[in-house]
């Protein structure tokens, strides 16, 4: 395929702004693919100037380099330090997990390899030279690659086009180096007396072949280092990157904001003296940094394209910065080769890279948040803490970790009291007088199948009965409404008439008789301003074409102005009426035979509307402060708890964030959970969003679970996690890490009513946590598939 060329069909003239790994590798690839190209790199620093010390590249990235440029791969391969183990040191205990497969080398050495490759190919390298503005270069260059870093001047100059979003986070960290090679990646916590600090360290250079460790005692942290260096500044005893990180408030409390570079290194060396063997730490323009996440809505503008940190950043704790930049370079070069027209090539580059980067950034944000909230987990048992750390980004899971190091995961399970051969998800859990046989919950799901008067029918019997037979520990109804005007749609179920109670009793009797050991719960709620709408598949949140009923809410604010009707703001007398409706429905639910009751205070429905500052604008005692906004939901909770049998558990579902500015915050969510717990809630069901239509959820794998995690590990209360938990591996990971007690899954149970039983079969489990109903036992083994053991051909004849 013909490579893109300039407008007069000559080879591209390319300007690269920034001489980091991404920019240099892009320059080398473009020149290698078409030697006729004129490629120039501008770098304002000297050739051997660099910040940081070692960089980590994955096997996947190295494979791409090997395929695209074997010469660079061979040069890098000779330099790599490889290791498999991660040592986790917490409160004086060291636990090791193996099988992880890392590779690292010095950043200076990486740059030297790329400098040599660029020179050999004829790339023009301009060091100590400020690049002209990208817009100026674009006048006489066919392509301008802005690889000018996290503080990209190009991105800033064209912010109206790239539309960047920059988020500064809550920890400070500093890059340092130790003059010896660790034998594993090491994570360690230390109590500074004013909060927790953490160390991330890994080797990036082997000792030189003729290096012999001194038998003399190690130097003290205050003694100056006198290393002999070679191989582009690497000490002859090898080298390790050492990153020290802590929350901003811990950093300030320790006076580190007043330390210079040398004093900061000495302080860190003293704090982690045992790991360093008393050795000092080296600096290299080292300063305390608050990490900044960079997201751009667009990556190209005419002939200008962003690459690496200029386009996106991901927290160092998943080792992704250099990796992403190099992969950007590979993709950009490939797209330029595959698409003759430059606009098409740049569009293809962004289309290819954006989903990969978004996934990495989600994992990085999860990892970053875990370290920001490290103090939350400080009191976890050692094995659980280590497992939680390793699975923090949600990319490494229980099953994945078991493949890497089965002995480690078995030890974690044993320490948690999980019986041998039992997946964590199949351990029992007790709430008040109810013991659930496993940790799987069929999440409440509106099915919009009730009669017009709110009576559940055969569909509900089959829908809930099938999922009860499918093995879940707890099966929840949809939101069951406490009054006709509290329904979302005319097809929503209720518990406000005698026929409702009889119909629900039919469901609970079936579950208890045909799926013994399965609990069935009811979720009580009131639609508030989100009521009087069509069924989901007829137009979600759209008003009925006719027959609409009046709506009520905390404040007279429509859900969608100009679309949904404006609700009536409830008076104090009307609040008493609604509270009585909830209490009446709770008593009916008890008579109907439900094992658990959940109060729905999430998703923008009536009680949720009181909790969020975006939907509660009241000026009386039921509005204003968080305590005021909590007042009515707590009154309803107390009224319901009074009617609900004392031995049966009661949970509350909350929206832990509104995903919108000015709405409920994670700190608010902890306060909400604490308040409901103090009033007698046995667990908090932690969901998010759906409160306002202009929300911006951060979708992704298990994306809502961090909110449940924070509540559980801050308050020590049981929680139910929800939100894109789609695999049994996710459930095992979340339970064993101590991030949740129960996992609620919705869509997986629509796809497969027997999801829990199939999860047991796929894991080879047949214990009491997932018994197959007797009529189904013949199907408890995975059905055979086509033959896969046919003999392979051994000879090919001409």
TrEMBL record:
Region annotated Disordered, chain positions: 203-236, 770-798
Annotated FAD-binding domain residues: 13-361
Pfam families xrefs: FAD_binding_3, Oxidored_FMN
Domain (NADH:flavin oxidoreductase/NADH oxidase N-terminal) ranges: 425-760
Domain of life: Bacteria
Transmembrane segments: none
Name of the protein described by the UniProt record: Bifunctional salicylyl-CoA 5-hydroxylase/oxidoreductase
Protein source organism: Streptomyces lunalinharesii
Upper classification of the organism: Bacteria, Bacillati, Actinomycetota, Actinomycetes, Kitasatosporales
């Amino acid at each position: 395929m013909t490579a893109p060329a300039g407008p007069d069909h000559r080879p591209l003239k390319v300007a690269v702004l920034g001489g980091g790994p991404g920019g240099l590798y892009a320059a080398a690839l473009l020149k290698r693919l078409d030697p006729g190209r004129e490629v120039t790199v501008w770098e304002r620093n000297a050739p051997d100037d660099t910040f940081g010390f070692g960089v980590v590249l994955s096997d996947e990235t190295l494979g791409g380099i090997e395929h695209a440029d074997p010469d660079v791969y061979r040069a890098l391969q000779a330099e790599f330090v490889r290791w498999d183990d991660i040592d986790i040191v917490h409160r004086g205990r060291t636990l090791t997990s193996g099988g992880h497969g890392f590779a690292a080398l010095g950043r200076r050495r990486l740059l030297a390899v790329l400098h040599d490759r660029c020179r050999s190919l004829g790339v023009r390298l301009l060091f100590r030279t400020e690049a002209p503005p990208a817009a100026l270069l674009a006048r006489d260059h066919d392509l301008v690659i802005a690889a000018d870093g996290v503080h990209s001047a190009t991105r800033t100059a064209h912010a109206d086009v790239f539309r960047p979003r920059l988020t500064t986070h809550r920890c400070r960290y500093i890059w340092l180096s130790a003059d010896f090679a660790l034998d594993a990646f090491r994570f360690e916590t230390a109590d500074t007396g004013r909060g927790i600090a953490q160390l991330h360290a890994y080797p990036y250079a082997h000792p030189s072949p003729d290096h012999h460790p001194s038998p003399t005692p190690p130097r003290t942290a205050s003694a100056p280092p006198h290393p002999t260096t070679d191989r582009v500044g690497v000490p002859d005893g090898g080298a390790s990157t050492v990153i020290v990180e802590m929350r901003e408030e811990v950093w300030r409390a320790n006076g580190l904001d007043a330390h210079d570079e040398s004093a900061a290194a000495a302080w860190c060396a003293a704090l982690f003296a045992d790991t360093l063997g008393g050795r000092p730490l080296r600096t290299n323009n080292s300063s305390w940094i608050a990490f900044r996440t960079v997201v751009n809505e667009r990556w190209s503008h005419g002939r200008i394209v962003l690459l690496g940190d200029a386009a996106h950043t991901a927290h160092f704790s998943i080792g992704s910065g250099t990796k992403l930049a190099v992969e950007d370079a590979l993709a950009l070069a490939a797209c330029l080769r595959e698409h003759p027209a430059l606009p098409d090539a740049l569009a293809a580059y962004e289309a290819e890279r954006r989903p990969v980067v978004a996934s990495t950034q989600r994992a990085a944000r999860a990892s970053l948040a875990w370290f920001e909230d490290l103090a939350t987990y400080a009191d976890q048992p050692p094995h659980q803490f280590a497992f939680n750390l390793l699975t923090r980004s949600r990319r490494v899971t229980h099953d994945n970790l078991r493949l890497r190091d089965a002995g480690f995961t078995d030890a974690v399970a044993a320490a948690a009291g999980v019986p041998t051969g039992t997946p964590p998800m199949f351990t029992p859990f007790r709430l008040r007088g109810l013991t659930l046989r496993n940790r799987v919950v069929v999440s409440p799901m509106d099915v919009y199948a009730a009669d017009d008067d709110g009576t559940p029918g055969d569909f509900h019997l089959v829908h809930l009965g099938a999922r009860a037979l499918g093995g879940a520990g707890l099966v929840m109804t949809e939101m069951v409404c406490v009054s006709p005007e509290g329904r979302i749609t005319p097809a929503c179920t209720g518990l406000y008439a005698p026929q409702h109670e009889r119909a629900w009793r039919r469901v609970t009797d079936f579950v208890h008789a045909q799926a013994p050991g399965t609990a069935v719960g009811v979720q009580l709620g009131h639609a508030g301003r989100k009521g009087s709408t069509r069924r989901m598949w007829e137009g979600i949140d759209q008003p009925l074409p006719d027959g609409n009923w009046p709506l009520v809410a905390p404040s007279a604010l429509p859900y969608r102005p100009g679309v949904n009707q404006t609700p009536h703001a409830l008076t104090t007398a009307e609040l008493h009426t609604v509270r009585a409706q909830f209490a009446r429905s709770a008593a009916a639910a008890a008579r109907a035979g439900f094992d658990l009751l959940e109060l729905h205070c999430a998703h923008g429905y009536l009680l949720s509307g009181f909790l969020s500052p975006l939907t509660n604008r009241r000026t009386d005692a039921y509005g204003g402060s968080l305590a005021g906004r909590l007042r009515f939901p707590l009154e309803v909770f107390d009224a319901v708890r009074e009617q609900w049998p004392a031995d049966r558990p009661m949970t509350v579902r909350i929206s832990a964030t509104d995903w919108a500015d000015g709405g409920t915050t994670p700190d608010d969510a902890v306060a909400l959970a604490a308040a409901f717990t103090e009033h007698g809630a046995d667990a908090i069901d932690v969901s998010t969003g759906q409160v306002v239509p202009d929300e911006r959820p951060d979708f992704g794998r298990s994306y809502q679970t961090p909110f449940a995690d924070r509540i559980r590990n801050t308050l020590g209360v049981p929680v139910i996690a929800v939100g894109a938990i789609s695999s049994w591996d996710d459930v095992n990971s979340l339970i064993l890490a101590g991030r949740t007690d129960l996992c609620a899954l919705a869509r997986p149970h629509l796809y497969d009513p027997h999801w829990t039983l199939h999860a047991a079969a796929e894991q080879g489990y047949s214990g009491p946590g997932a018994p197959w109903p007797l009529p189904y036992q013949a199907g408890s083994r995975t059905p055979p598939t086509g033959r896969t053991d046919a003999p392979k051909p051994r000879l090919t004849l001409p």
